[in-house]
Amino acid sequence: MADQKKFLLSENDIPKQWYNIQADLPNPVAPALHPGTGQPAGPEDFAPLFPMELIMQEVSQDRWIDIPDPVREMYRMWRPTPLIRATGLEKALGTPAKIFYKYEGVSPVGSHKPNTAIAQAYYNKIEGTKRIVTETGAGQWGSALAFACQQFGLESKIYMVKASFNQKPYRKSMMQTWGGTVTASPSEETQAGRTILAGNPDSPGSLGIAISEAVEVAAGDDSTKYSLGSVLNHVLMHQTVIGQEAVMQMEMAGAYPDIVIGCAGGGSNLAGISFPFIADKLAGKSNTRFIAVEPEASPSLTKGQFAYDFGDAIGMTPLLKMHTLGHTFVPNPIHAGGLRYHGMAPLVSALFDAGVYEARAYHQNACFEAAVLFASTEGIIPAPEPTHAIKAAIDEALVAKETGEEKNILFHLCGHGHLDLSAYDSYFAGTMVDYALPEEAIAEAMKSVPQMG
Ligand SMILES: *Cc1c(COP(=O)(O)O)cnc(C)c1O
Questions:
Q1: Would the CB of 268 count as within 6 Å of ligand 1?
Q2: Could you tell me which of 314, 312, 324, 267 has the C-alpha nearest to residue 290?
Q3: Could you tell me the distance, in angstroms and rounded to a whole number, from the CA of residue 415 to the centre of ligand 1?
Q4: Span from the CA of 203 to the centroid of ligand 1 (angstroms)
Q5: Ligand 1 centre and the CA of 171: distance in Å?
């Protein structure tokens, strides 16, 4: 069928292994450094926070890592996810390009995040962890972790940035439905929280403060571990189930992608859709372009620097070599909460530095305009984050229209926007602000990047 719309796999096609791109990199990624000594951090440095299996995955050079059966069994709840040809959008644009999207919004949480949350909860369970503690900004990661912990009989505790806790009550309700304990951060429960509150009782909180609270709790309790929803190598690897399925589905469509596009906050959904295709490029078998799309308000690839920096705002975590705007950078409050992070995954940063990824940044009004066109032609209402990928896909399809080239464009629709309708309200009311980021603000935050020898 030349104009087939959906490309569906069966449960047997759910990948049996994760793809570890570290095995195929021309140069190994720079190691994480201990925040105190500046020396490469070893497994023992991470042991209080993560189960050993995840620590080993973080540095593994094996190309394929088996997905444990219980994890694959959980994946069956929503995997394989559909790959859809955007015929309605193509028609509206009048482009000769074929546009495809992989849709992760069918997961219970509504995004790609449970692909790693399930894996992380599983390894914690088998290594004896009783409780996982984490932080969440807008609530997407917290919901995924609460869901995954409940599936494996673990407790979950989530420090949610206070401003979001008050403004986004439905994500909190989701976490509670899945058995999670949600605390507004900064809280009185930790030293870090009490210190912040002593200085400013009305602090709205930040992701950096919430990380500090979660890490403090995990470090102080043997049966509690910490968990991260993006950035780290093992998180990106877990997300490669997305791209592996997409490889099979594009084969079914008889269309190898010329362009692969994903939005980039910490880099995990982009890695998930693209790493299995990048394997072909690294092997010299394709000329595909890979595009990372970020918001103008938080442009770590397009405006940041490739340097060692802290993962949190306070400087407690190991140092990672990544594209960063400086760990003290506080982005403006755009609606795509998942894209507001000062750094970018070391693996994505290294591949950007090597010229494998291109990057571009867009303002949020242009992205929502693209999302509304997408919803009117394809039906699905996207989360604010992937509106960036949609905008880039549309722009590339319009380039193809001008040149008359029949390009195959694949983008990642990593989540739906049913809990983000206030962002659409703001777009329709004309109150959505396009923050122009002053160069001075970046220069100022960049001063917080530690000078490494
Ligand atoms: C968390 C999230 C993101 C940003 O994280 P990445 O690691 O860059 O993928 C993007 N989109 C959605 C829907 C998210 O939930």
A1: yes
A2: 267
A3: 8
A4: 25
A5: 15
Atom of ligand 1 nearest to the CA of 104: 13
| pTM check: above 0.85 | yes
Residue among 81, 101, 111 whose CB has most ligand 1 atoms within 8 A, to mutate: 111
Q: Which two tokens stand for residue 279?
A: 């394997």
- What residues does each domain of the chain span? 6-13+71-110+240-446, 36-67+113-233
385 CA distance to ligand 1 centroid (A)?
A: 7
Determine if ligand 1 sits within 6 Å of the CB of residue 274: no
Does the Cβ of 385 fall within 6 Å of ligand 1?
yes
Same-fold call for 6-13+71-110+240-446 versus 36-67+113-233: yes
CB-based contact 242:250 (threshold 8 Å): no
| Euclidean distance between CA atoms 46 and 127, whole angstroms | 15
Sign of CA dihedral 327, 362, 291, 302: negative
> Which tens digit of pLDDT belongs to each residue from 370-406?
999 999 999 999 999 999 999 999 999 999 999 999 9
**Could you tell me which CATH class the domain 6-13+71-110+240-446 is placed in?**
alpha beta
CB 250 within 8 A of CB 83: yes
Ligand 1 atom closest to Cα of residue 345: 7
Report the interhelical angle of 364-378 vs 387-403 (nearest 10°). Answer: 80
Nearest to 353 by CA among 309, 305, 392, 319: 305
Task: Convert the pLDDT of each residue in 142-199 to its tens digit.
Answer: 999 999 999 999 999 999 999 889 888 899 999 999 999 999 999 999 998 999 899 8
Tokens 């930790």 belong to residue: 190
CATH fold of 36-67+113-233, please?
Rossmann fold (3.40.50)
DSSP string, 169-212: HHHHHHHHHTTEEEEEES-TTSHHHHHHHHH-TT----HHHHHH
